[in-house]
Design a protein that fits this description.
184 residues; mainly alpha; two-stranded parallel ribbon
Length: 184
C-alpha cells in the first residue's frame, strides 16, 4: 500500500513507521505516521497559492494579524478566540482537501502533533504522546494516511496565482512596449 504514495518524503515516513512498528520501537510509529500526513497536506497546499500568496484552502485573511488583534490576543478571551479560529481554519482546510474529519479525529487521538521549527525541523514534546496503538489501530492510521495520499493525488495540480500574475504582467509589458523594429 505504501508504494502507492507518490510524495517521496511521506512514503519514507510511512516505511519508517511500518519498520519501527514491526520491531516495537515505541513511540516512533505514530510520530512517523503524523509526519507523513503533515508532509502530504503541506506539499499539496504549498503547490496551490492564491493571489495573496496564501494557500487556496485557508480561511485566514492574512498570515499577519492586524494590530488591533494584538490587543485582543493579550486577553484570555482573545487567546481563546484565536485558538478557536485557528482550529476552525484547520478543519475547513481539511474538508476542502476532501479529508474525512471522523477518521482524522481518530488519527489525531493516536498520532501526536509535532512542533515545527522555522528551519523545517520538528520536535515532539516528551510526555505528550497519545495512547499506545494496537495492531488494528496502527493499520487504520496507516490506511488513513495512504488514502489521504490517494485522495490528494486524484485531483492534483500546481497553481501559483502570484507567479502567473507576475508572468502575465511581464508578458503584457512586452506586448505594449515598442520593439526596436517598430521604433525604426
Amino acid at each position: 500500500m505504501v508504494s502507492l504514495v507518490r510524495n517521496e518524503s511521506s512514503r519514507r515516513h510511512l516505511e519508517t513507521a511500518s519498520a519501527k512498528w514491526v520491531v516495537g520501537d515505541w513511540p516512533e510509529p505514530p510520530r512517523e505516521l503524523r509526519l507523513a500526513f503533515d508532509r502530504l497536506v503541506a506539499d499539496y497546499e504549498e503547490r496551490k497559492i492564491g493571489r495573496t500568496g496564501k494557500s487556496l484552502f485557508t480561511t485566514q485573511p492574512s498570515p499577519f494579524l492586524p494590530d488591533e488583534m494584538e490587543v485582543v490576543r493579550g486577553s484570555e478571551l482573545g487567546k481563546f478566540v484565536h485558538r478557536w479560529l485557528m482550529a476552525l481554519d484547520e478543519r475547513t482546510r481539511l474538508l476542502a482537501l476532501g479529508i474525512d474529519l471522523r477518521r482524522h479525529a481518530e488519527f489525531n487521538a493516536y498520532c501526536p502533533k509535532p512542533f515545527y521549527t522555522i528551519g523545517g525541523g520538528h520536535t515532539f514534546v516528551i510526555g505528550t504522546d497519545q495512547v499506545q496503538l494496537h495492531e488494528d489501530t496502527f493499520r487504520r492510521c496507516l490506511l488513513f494516511v495512504v488514502e489521504t495520499a490517494l485522495t490528494l493525488g486524484a485531483e492534483d495540480y500546481d497553481f501559483n496565482a502570484l507567479a502567473l500574475r507576475q508572468a502575465q504582467g511581464l508578458y503584457r509589458r512586452r506586448l505594449t512596449s515598442p520593439t526596436s523594429d517598430q521604433a525604426s
